Amino acid sequence: MTVSENHFSEMTLDDERISHDFSASGDPLNPPTDTSAHILIIGAGVTGLTTAWALLDAGFRVTVISKEWASHGSGLRLTSQIAGALWELPPAGCGPQAVQGKLPMVQDWALESFAVYRTIAARATLAEAYGVKMKMFTSFHLNKIDSDALKTAKMQLMNDTGMEGFARGTHLFAKYGVNAASHGGLQDAYEHLAPIIDTDVAMSFLMRLVRSKGARFETDTVHGDILAQEDHLLSVYGADAIVNATGVWAGAAAADDSVYPMRGGVLRVVNDGTDFPKLENSMVVSSESKSDGYFRDMAFIVPRNDNILLLGSLVHRDAWALDLSPASDVVQEMRARCEDLLPMLKNARVESSYPFAQGMRPMRESYVRVELEERKTCRGQQSRIVHSYGHGGAGWSLAFGSARQVLRLVNGALSREEKKKKKMVCRDASMDKLINGVNGQRNGHLVT
Ligand SMILES: Cc1cc2nc3c(=O)[nH]c(=O)nc-3n(C[C@H](O)[C@H](O)[C@H](O)COP(=O)(O)OP(=O)(O)OC[C@H]3O[C@@H](n4cnc5c(N)ncnc54)[C@H](O)[C@@H]3O)c2cc1C
């Protein structure tokens, strides 16, 4: 079934390049030709759609299939819509964000994404269309940053990259009227300007944009391991390679047992200045690991758009059920944590039409996986699946850097395939030579 998108308005943005390889224009930066390779993307969250954008601007033809799409009613929304979505340099505040070995890689992706968001935010029309703003983000800590090697290294990187508005120190408690005794006692804080994304707006924009650049959308569900049906999918969709961007469902799609959900949730309260002074900046109390290896629930206060403030969050490992409500104990406790941090929120009114959003961060034991499938297909061939999942609590923070990495891997997989084909052509040609030679000799002449 082709997805109908009448509720999305037409692309009207002018041609705007936001980096050397991404353009916000409705046309692809490098238009495809009849011979351009065709990529099938499975999954239409921020990972799948930003990857579609990268591939389309690089000149590929793209089809996106997904079992669900961004929606704007009262039903469950995609994880990508539930996100804060606050840009943070990994390791971020909401639980296990980056296994050490991958930290430099994901920090690069985050910084690449930061640069793109900042460029978008600087252009008024585009910023509104994408729903991104640069706002002050303050991170509070339950330990001294200097006593924590990871946090110290992160501070250093922030200094090196010249984060705008950067400040650090306990004076930030008073600056924002936060309760320094909350969460058992805040010890440290830093802040800087960071992109905050209105995910509902951004998802609509991404769908509109990639569609306008030429992507086809189809509603389809892939059941089980994609590898087992790789040839079938390539043939049905006429594709040359597949990108797996199925988020928390990648456990089945990539036969990867190490994928697990980290349930999160946010209360949506009215931020119009009537119940408390309107908040424009975001705040997080960093979630620390407990002795059992699990992570503490955190306080996460993020202005969504002109009149909604998100109060979060939860970090519930292995929780597949999205069955919480504003009345649930854990949600009440979450609200109490936010109020404890910022007492003025005690008067906050929950927004009645959509009071609570919950979703599953796609976690993975060894964190994000953007890799070419190494297992062979049923026919013993090299696979042409590029996996892109396990972005945890950082899918928006990593989106553009991660999409570029997929693009590199897709190019690699296709050139490997091309080389293989050439080798086969050469082998066929030499076989022909041999056969003709034999026949020629039989017929009394040698064909050279
Ligand atoms: C409460 C909360 C707060 C968060 N805050 C932040 C934040 O501040 N900053 C940040 O960067 N990130 C944040 N995140 C994390 C972020 O939401 C995720 O990292 C991101 O959404 C992952 O995107 P994705 O596209 O990989 O997965 P998803 O958004 O889950 O998309 C997966 C897509 O694949 C499709 N799909 C799945 N399986 C199949 C199948 N078998 N066949 C066909 N289609 C399939 C789905 O329908 C969907 O379209 C937060 C998450 C939560 C829950």
UniProtKB/TrEMBL annotation:
Gene3D superfamilies: D-Amino Acid Oxidase, subunit A, domain 2, NAD(P)-binding Rossmann-like Domain. GO terms for biological process: D-amino acid catabolic process. SUPFAM superfamilies: FAD-linked reductases, C-terminal domain (SSF54373), Nucleotide-binding domain (SSF51971). GO terms for cellular component: cytoplasm. GO terms for molecular function: D-amino-acid oxidase activity; FAD binding. Its cofactor is FAD. The keyword DNA-binding does not apply. Keywords: FAD, Flavoprotein, Oxidoreductase. PANTHER family: D-AMINO ACID OXIDASE (PTHR11530), FAD DEPENDENT OXIDOREDUCTASE DOMAIN-CONTAINING PROTEIN (PTHR11530:SF25). Belongs to the DAMOX/DASOX family. This is FAD dependent oxidoreductase domain-containing protein. The lineage of its organism: Eukaryota, Fungi, Dikarya, Ascomycota, Pezizomycotina.
